[in-house]
Design goal:
Blueprint lengths: L2 E3 L14 E4 L2 E7 L2 E2 L4 E2 L4 H17 L8 E8 L5 H11 L6 E6 L9 E8 L2
Parallel strand pairs: 6-7
Antiparallel strand pairs: 1-2, 2-3, 3-8, 4-5, 6-8
């Protein structure tokens, strides 16, 4: 069985996918880019602002199912420029101070809406 997570506090899906899926004790959060859920526009600013918005969007999806960032066990970070890794990592570290999740980071040619960063997450719930 799977349950769809849908919240107005995170960007609406811009394709045929769900914001998140719950199955068993796992939550799969679809890749998030820095879209502001109130106006569906990309956040203005550099990689730091985009990373903040992406993580806030992930947090909103988890919160819609009673979870939070501490439930995340794995993330995958997609960057359009690995030279942005240090700045992204600095912001990322602020959100995952203790017991950070496992993570992979890969460089990609491009992301939807010209985003510089996209992050997907897997969380475990009790």
């Amino acid at each position: 069985m799977k349950k769809i997570i849908s919240t107005e506090n995170a960007p609406k899906a811009i394709g045929p996918y769900s914001q998140g899926i719950v199955t068993g004790n796992m939550i799969f959060v679809s890749g998030q880019i820095a879209i502001n859920p109130t106006d569906n526009e990309m956040s203005k600013g550099g990689i730091e602002e985009e990373t903040k918005k992406v993580i806030e969007n992930i947090k909103a999806i988890l919160n819609a199912h009673g979870a939070d960032l501490s439930n995340i066990v794995k993330t995958t970070v997609y960057l359009t420029d690995l030279n942005d890794f240090g700045k992204m990592n600095e912001i990322y570290a602020r959100y995952f101070k203790e017991n950070p999740p496992a993570r992979a980071t890969v460089e990609v040619k491009s992301l939807p809406k010209g985003a510089k960063v996209e992050i997907e997450a897997i969380a475990i719930i009790e």
